[in-house]
Amino acid sequence: MKKLLVLTMVVLASVSLEAQINTPAPSPFSKVEQKVGLTDVTLEYSRPAMRGRTIFGDLVPYDKLWRTGANENTKITFGDDVTIDGQEVKAGTYSVFTKPGKTSWEIFLYTDTEGGVPKEWDASKIAAKTTSEVYPLPMKIESFTMGFDDLESGSAILGIMWENAYVPLKIEVPTEKMVSESIETTMGGSPKAEDYYTAAVYYLESDKDVKKAQDWMDKAMEMTDEPAFWQLRQQSLIQAKAGDKKAAIKTAKKSLAKAKEAGNDDYVKMNTDSLKEWGAK
Fold first, then answer.
1. Is residue 124 a contact partner of residue 136, using CB atoms and an 8 Å limit?
2. For residue 265, what are the contacts with CB-CB under 8 A and spacing of at least 6?
3. How many CA atoms lie within 13 A of 97 on its CB side?
4. Burial status of residue 120 (CB atoms within 10 A of its CB: 0-12, 13-18, 19 or more)
5. Band of pLDDT at residue 281, cut at 50, 70 and 90
6. Chain segment 55-80, per-residue pLDDT in tens
């Protein structure tokens, strides 16, 4: 009996030592992964809350370097070389430091990613530096928030929000260069119908050589036994942009018929609107 009691006490003591109380973090960690064009961008940061406090000019002083969040350094990782305010930033991971002001912020990408704000600031470790205007928000943002806005094929805005301030940072990615190299390589080999189609649509959406886009789309359609309504839709847009409204109307009518057959209301409306715009009878 005495041995059993001792064993029980040992087990309870062991459980007591291992037990931990879990509570929510006051500044939760957040990770945002975003594809911008063809470039992977990852943002890692912690999110402090206002909790009734005045933030900018008080908790976060004006004109003083800030880690841009809480806890560990806020980090941004680029899968490819990018451009910020005309400055080339190599693929890799950087700390995001800021110096908030009343009407504008200085924003720094810094090569050291650990240890918080450096005790000794090393200008040689600044990968990019820019100044961004502060835009007042019509409501208060309780939790510090960072995310990607205004996504386009060649750029995105890193938006910083807290209290009633919004600060944007434009990031440009090398999508055009990467796509152009891919098209050149593919067209120099044995392109398939989907290659011609993809290249044609990219040229259409990027406002490039419409004649080349039309040639590629024609080849894609010739190599496709039964073009789908969405493919015909893109072909009609290229034809219209090239100035061949007659061909565009004919192709759009085919796309419309197939869209109706498939029950796709979005394409029915888009084709109907285009046919009206192009003066179809």
1. no
2. none
3. 25
4. exposed
5. confident
6. 999 999 999 999 999 999 999 999 99
Give the pLDDT band (50/70/90) at residue 141.
Answer: very high
Q: Do the Cβ atoms of 78 and 43 come closer than 8 Å?
A: no
H-run or E-run covering 261: helix 245-262
d(C-alpha 17, C-alpha 61), whole Å:
42
pTM of the model: 0.85
CA angle at residue 129 from 140 to 118, to 5 degrees? 85
122 exposed, middle or buried (CB, 10 Å; 0-12, 13-18, 19+)?
exposed
Q: How many CA atoms lie within 13 A of 162 on its CB side?
A: 23
Which tokens belong to 82? 């990018």
Quote the pLDDT of residue 4. Answer: 53
Cβ-based neighbours of 211, under 8 Å, separated by 6 or more: 242
Are 233 and 256 in contact, with CB atoms under 8 Å apart?
Answer: no
Q: Is the pLDDT of residue 143 over 90?
A: yes
Sorted by sequence, the CB contacts under 8 Å of residue 245 that are 6+ apart come out as: 239, 278, 279
In three-state secondary structure terms, 236 is helix
Whether the predicted pLDDT of 206 surpasses 60 = yes
Tokens 């400055």: give the residue.
Answer: 87
C-alpha–C-alpha distance, residues 172 and 85, integer Å: 9
CA distance 117 to 13: 42
Residues, the chain: 281
Q: Quote the pLDDT of residue 115.
A: 87
Question: Any residues with CB less than 8 A from the CB of 35 and at least 6 apart, and which?
Answer: 41
Structure tokens at 147: 């995310």
